[in-house]
Write a structure and sequence with these properties.
single chain; about 270 residues; alpha+beta; L-fuculose-1-phosphate Aldolase; 2 domains; eight-stranded mixed sheet; 9 helices; about 35% helix; about 15% strand
Length: about 270
């Protein structure tokens, strides 16, 4: 009787297994679509940074400085198209694995950035390489020092949100569930002269509990665990400003009841947004 040849068992590789040991995949492995996406794109689809953070809170080489430069350029283009950074307004930064940051330079349109335009700064504000940094670099450094989990910062001038900041109106009312879940409360920082240490003083006390801040008579600052999150928060701030203004023009908004707000805050906490 002829023995049947032994058939190797097929191995199903989970997303968790790949993250644990990405360089050791058996030849007979069957990789799930989700895991295949993770192999191709890292965590970009989910926005997570857990596997890219280093011990000092920065970004590891797995993502790479070159990729982050491209992301800043693309984010600048998107902000410009939205009308959030006219002329040479606004600035964008990300934190690197060695603790330094990449930031947009002074005097350059965010819609016409090139990867080589960006400046690398130390956390002491010293220029490591590149052009003269944005005059608002102090604001960015303040965020990174106060919020170890912040990996990216966006400062822009979305017109309606900035208009409310000029009128002394914070976005701290629970008008929609999305505002509560995505942003929480968006406070209004006191006016400070742009490009000075006054700016860091105006926001330092607010950073612990907030990822988005209106800057009186100036604009908006948002931050996040990655650049996409910081960008989307900027979009959401402007959307919240539109809704707030529309509600006021319609006679005043009806706020979500406090007990329902607490339920939304629990959802925000479960999603890791608080």
């Amino acid at each position: 009787m002829t023995e049947k040849p032994e058939i190797k068992k097929r191995v199903f590789i989970s997303d968790w297994e790949l993250r644990k040991n990405p360089g050791n995949i058996p030849e007979n492995a069957i990789v799930s679509p989700l895991s295949r996406d993770w192999m191709d794109y890292g965590d970009q689809k989910t926005g997570g940074l857990e596997d890219r953070r280093t011990s000092d809170g920065g970004m590891s080489d797995q993502q790479g400085e070159a990729d982050l430069r491209k992301q800043i350029v693309e984010t600048g283009r998107r902000l410009y198209v939205l009308g959030f950074v006219p002329a040479t307004d606004g600035n964008i930064s990300v934190r690197l694995g060695d603790g330094s940051i990449l930031i947009t330079p002074a005097g350059v349109s965010k819609g016409a950035l090139a990867a080589g335009d960006l400046t690398k700064l130390g956390m002491d504000g010293r220029v490591i390489s590149g052009k003269k940094p944005s005059s608002e670099y102090r604001l960015h450094l303040c965020v990174y020092k106060q919020k170890p989990g912040a990996m990216a910062v966006v400062h822009a001038h979305p017109p309606l949100a900035t208009g409310l900041a000029c009128a002394g109106v914070a976005l701290d009312k629970p008008l929609t569930s999305e505002m509560v879940i995505s942003l929480g409360s968006v406070p209004l920082a006191e006016y400070a002269t742009p490009g000075t240490d006054e700016v860091t003083g105006s926001i330092a006390g607010l950073l612990k509990d907030h990822d988005a801040i209106l800057l009186a008579n100036h604009g908006v600052m948002t931050c996040g665990r990655n650049l996409e999150t910081a960008f989307q928060r900027m979009e959401t701030v402007e959307q919240a400003a539109k809704i707030t203004l529309a509600a006021a023009l319609a006679g005043g908004g009806r706020l979500i009841p406090p007990d329902k707000v607490r339920e939304l805050e629990k959802i925000r906490a479960r999603l890791g947004l608080s």
